[in-house]
Amino acid sequence: MCEIFHDDGWVRIIHGDALKVLRGMPSESVDCVITSPPYWGLRDYGEEAVVEWPDGWKGQLGSEPTSKLYIEHLLMITAELRRVLRKTGVMFWNHGDCYGRERDKCLALQNFRLILRMVDEQCWILRNIIIWHKIRSTPESVKDRFTNTYEPVFMLVKDKKYWFDLDTVREPPRVPIDEAPKRFGRLDPERKGAKFSMEGMVKYQRFVHPLGKNPGDVWQIAPANFMGNHFAVFPEKLVERCIKAGCPKGGLVLDPFAGSGTTGAVAKRLGRKAILIEIVREYCEMARERVAKETPALPLGER
């Protein structure tokens, strides 16, 4: 069953199976995809999340008996995501890992196995593996390995030329440009080291972008603190950076595993439209409540 659960002109929430909904969407209609799929063998989302797959298997995404079948199902979805994504579009795919479903104590590498097949078989272009470092992450009781404190966010595109706005997410420089003379320049030529300091100032002013530095591929962002009944919620700061860099103003963001609706709420706030797909009705209601509270930065329809 697929139904439009909410549509305020900015955010459309669709209650239904992601694969079926995606297959009904027009090609090249989305500017940016930001999502995180159910991880293999990690959560049970209830009977409502059980679907019948084209290969005949019936069950929840993530509850497959083998990682191979799980990846096959995700590849059906990523193929549709590539189809609906514009040629200039960008996808941010957050995907962690799990231990011990098929080999005791061994990481399954479910995420990297999937990405390799997406690149090799579906012609996705992998531009970045962003490390989401979860500062203040939940402690683990394990004693025979180190605590997991990060998840990868894979940045993928379908064409070599794509829309990307680095300037919107630059970080302030360590030393502001207008303070460089104070920090590096010694105007008294009699002072020892004056020449070296002046050279340092000139190099700094020449190579540092006035809007700040590239934030790099390690993002230190705390996990979301959300009071609703949802297992894993995107932090808004992570989604905000992805949207600003990967979706033009007034553009359309898609999250096929919307959960509590973080992607939609942030998109609306930043003046982007969003389509959220979620199979659990309770989460659709959470998402509707969240997006209803947001005030968009742009008038509806402006791009």
Number of structural units classed as domains: 2
Give the count of helical stretches. 8
User: Care to count the β-strands?
Assistant: 11
Helix content: 25-40%
For the record, the CATH architecture of the largest domain stands as 3-Layer(aba) Sandwich
**Helix and strand succession?**
EEHEEEHEHEEHHEHEHEH
Terminal Cα span? 33 Å
Mean pLDDT: 88
Largest sheet: 9 strands, mixed
Strand content is 15-25%
- Integer-rounded radius of gyration: 22 Å
How would you explain this protein's 3D organization?
With 303 residues, the protein is α/β, with parallel strands linked by helices. Helices cover 29% and strands 20% of the residues. A hairpin with a 5-residue loop joins β4 (51-52) and β5 (58-59). Mean pLDDT is 88; it is low at 185-189.
Write the layout of secondary structure elements.
Elements: E1 3-7, E2 11-15, H1 18-23, E3 30-35, E4 51-52, E5 58-59, H2 67-84, E6 85-94, H3 110-122, E7 125-133, E8 150-157, H4 180-184, H5 194-207, E9 218-220, H6 236-246, E10 252-255, H7 262-269, E11 273-278, H8 281-292
Parallel strand pairs: 2-11, 3-6, 3-10, 7-9, 10-11
Antiparallel strand pairs: 1-2, 4-5, 6-8, 7-8
Helix pairs in contact: 2-3, 6-7, 7-8
